[in-house]
Amino acid sequence: MGLDNPLHIAFLVVILLLVFGAKRLPEIGRSLGSGMREFKSSITGEDHSHQTLPPAAQPQQHQQEPPPVTAAPPAPAAAAPPAPAPAPVEHQQQS
Asked: Do 12 and 3 meet the contact criterion of CB atoms below 8 Å apart?
């Protein structure tokens, strides 16, 4: 009743394809693998953060990066006079 039967593994793969789609499964597998590596290295105390894929093996991104956002200069403080305070409202009691 475990995953030792090939039919169970095939059934699990079909369910995963239906739920996540064929395009997302490799991405999920990569993130799961890197998470397991980080967990193992944190348990054993080893530091494997410097290991990366060679540039040829890294996935290619076909999206263009947006241009960098620059901050606008602050507006001068003397440009706008402060708004006057509203006049107090007096309430009259009705008899």
From this structure: yes
